[in-house]
Amino acid sequence: MPLFLFVTFLLSHVTFSQQRAALNWGKIPFELEKQYDINDSIAVRVDQFKFYVQALNEDKQHHIHLIDAAEQESWQWTSPIAPMQIGIQAAIQTAGVFIGELDPINGMYWAWNTGFISVKCVGEVIHTKKETSQKFEYHLGGYQAPFACIKAIPGSGTQLNCDLSLWFKAILHTETQDWLIMQPSEESLAIFELFMASLHYDQ
After folding, report:
1. What is d(CA 184, CA 121) in angstroms, rounded to the nearest whole number?
2. Higher pLDDT among residues 16 and 154, named by residue
3. What digits encode the pLDDT tens for the residues 37-65?
4. How confident is the model at residue 59, as a pLDDT?
5. What's the whole-model pTM score?
6. Is the bond leading into 154 cis (omega within 30 degrees of zero)?
7. Rounded to whole angstroms, what are the CA distances from 58 to 80, 81, 82?
8. Contact 158, 17 (CB under 8 A)
9. Could you tell me which residues come within 8 angstroms of residue 41 by beta carbon, excluding any fewer than 6 positions away?
10. How far apart are the C-alpha atoms of 143 and 148, rounded to whole Å?
11. What's the whole-number mean pLDDT along residues 174-189?
12. Whole-angstrom Cα distance, residue 131 to residue 82?
């Protein structure tokens, strides 16, 4: 079968739908560069927040989308009706594809041996009573075990909700509060797992 006919055949058997990400802080819409209280003495301001989602349909065709909090148009995209995951599969990360959503100009690529960043979040932790602040920078990614930050999102739906208040409150309750994570590690995987817990679909 000629290639173009094969591609046409595959497309004709894939059902697509409009997907949407809703970024929130608790019950209110999330905004970059806005200060949010975590408790009575600590607040956080996020200046940059991006993450990859990937769908895998039954025909093994990969669909990757980069959600950027700074670009609201990226909060909606068309994707096959299929399970979704955060991060990019290892086979794609090692294939040397650097176009579209995978273009390094997006600031989500490390290097050949570590691959793409799954979740990037940068900002400041503010100690309101002490009137001091500390920069934080999370680059959570990598495709190699045991620290690969790639995981399926439980459930399904067309609106993916991300509650950043849940994420940062969970981080504050961890024993190790490492505010600068720039490479795959045990700490990066732990923070990534907490991020996954902040996600849920509208049913």
Report:
1. 15
2. 154
3. 999 999 999 999 999 999 876 555 578 99
4. 54
5. 0.89
6. no
7. 9, 10, 8
8. yes
9. 127, 128, 129, 130
10. 4
11. 88
12. 47
Report the length, in residues, of the chain: 203
String of DSSP letters for the chain: --HHHHHHHHHHT--EEEEEEEEEETTEE--TT-EEESSSSEEEEEEEEEEEEEEE-TT--EEEEEEETT-GGGGEEEEESS-EEES--HHHHTTT--SGGG-GGGS-EEETTTEEEEEEEEEEEEETTTTEEEEEEEEEE--STTS---EEPSS--SEEEEEHHHHHHHHHTSS---SEE-S-SHHHHHHHHHHHTTEEE--
Give me 114's structure tokens. 């570590």
Cα dihedral sign, 57-183-195-44: negative
d(CA 93, CA 115): 6
The letter for the amino acid at 199 is L
- The count of other CB atoms within 10 Å of the CB of residue 33 is 11
Q: β-strand 159-163 against 132-141: which pairing, if any? A: unpaired
